Amino acid sequence: MNHVVFLLVPGLHLLDLAGPAQAFSTASGLGHPYTLGYVAEQEQVPTAQGVPLLAGLAWPQLGPDDLIVVPGWRTAALADSPVLGAGSLRALRDHHARGGTVASVCAGAEALGRAGLLDGRRCTTHHDVQHELARRYPRATVVRDVLYTADDRVVTSAGIASGIDLALHLIATRHGPAVAAQVARDMVVYARRNGHEPQASAMLRYRSHLDDIVHRAQDLLDTRFDRPWPLPALAAAVGVSERTLTRLFTRATGGLTPLRYQQTLRLERAEHLISHGTTVDSAARAVGFQDARMLRRLRARTGGPDADGA
Predict the structure, then answer these.
(1) Mean per-residue pLDDT for 19-40?
(2) Span 49-97, pLDDT tens digits
(3) Which of the chain's termini has less CB crowding within 10 Å, N or C?
(4) Topology of the domain covering 3-180
(5) pLDDT at 138 > cutoff 60
(6) The dihedral sign for the CA sequence 299, 304, 307, 310
């Protein structure tokens, strides 16, 4: 996703646009370059909040690694949504057909539906229009009570601020959860759970706090969880005493010490490796345990299987 192009529709909600745009811009500032573009069927696009926006009329050249996002707009009913021309709908279809990813925020799912991209796929939208979306596109599976869905490079999110969650998901998929956690931290947003689905990573699950010292410690542990991190070294790296770091860390993460947090990261990665065919012994070495006994104890403690290949 080197290019992220936003298709702007008259009456769009500013936060539907600004949230994902800020997330990708922040990721770019962290060393993962993105080029953001804005395309519309008219040069000046009115917004629901009254701020007019300027956009280009020509689509840039896009490849399979690029992303098109359709922010949502203010509407009482999807049937009354602004008209999208054949060229815009064709651009959405063609980009997906070439292997690219398309995404929507809020009512923007209507544009994907009109382009035929929701048929046979899971999707979601703002709770006020979920029933209508299901009626208008009966071949789609509209999922309720989730922040976003992803199905065959068609990614949809619920209302307004959930566009940030969608963007963080895409960044985590592309660059890993540690980068997504850094973006969420820089934006001072909570990394929220996605409805009934489990949180993707402990790197995001324990970031719902505003303690900068703890975030800095987590940044170090996230990027080097497979290496030794003695508490004195970690405390010195973030500029506080061992006792202060432990106290702040435990409070911010809901009871985890830095060591337990590191073990959680190691266990999570080990479970991923084991699920893809790695033995317990090999997984233990890969995540930084000197032998497999500690990994087996942690897996047993959390209710996980205790045998190779299980």
Answers:
(1) 96
(2) 999 999 999 999 999 999 999 999 999 999 999 989 999 999 999 999 9
(3) C
(4) Rossmann fold (3.40.50)
(5) yes
(6) negative
List 154's β-bridge partners, or say none.
Answer: 102, 151
- β pairing state of 3-8 and 35-40: parallel
The pLDDT tens digits for 160-178 are: 899 999 999 999 889 988 8
pLDDT at residue 296 is higher than 60: yes
- The long-range contacts involving 140-149, CB below 8 angstroms and separated by at least 24 positions, are 140/113, 143/195, 145/195, 145/196, 146/194, 146/195, 146/196, 146/197, 147/192, 147/193, 147/194, 147/195, 148/124, 148/194, 149/122, 149/123, 149/124
Which residue shows structure tokens 């403690």?
301
For residue 110, which of 86, 130, 87 has the smallest C-alpha distance? 130
Q: For 4, phi and psi rounded to 5 degrees? A: -120, 115
- CA torsion through residues 295, 297, 302, 305, sign: positive
Looking at 33-176, list the stretches that DSSP marks H as alpha helix, in order from N- to C-terminal side. 86-97, 109-114, 130-136, 162-175
- Measured distance CA(209)–CA(146) in Å, rounded: 22
The pLDDT of residue 223 is above 90: no
| Residue carrying the six token digits 């370059």 | 33
Residue 17 identity (one-letter amino acid):
L
Question: Is 212 strand, coil or helix?
Answer: helix
Average pLDDT, the chain: 91
Chain segment 181-207, per-residue pLDDT in tens: 889 889 988 767 676 555 457 777 788
Question: Length of the chain in residues, anyone?
Answer: 310
**Structure-block tokens of residue 249:** 């860390």
Q: Which residues of 126-160 are buried (b: 16+ CB within 10 A; e: fewer)?
A: beebbebbbebbeebbbbeebbbbbbebbbbbbbb
Domain ranges (residues) in the chain: 3-180, 209-310
Tokens of 171: 């960044």
The highest-level CATH class for domain 209-310 is mainly alpha
Q: Which of 277, 273, 271 shows the shortest CA–CA distance to 298?
A: 271
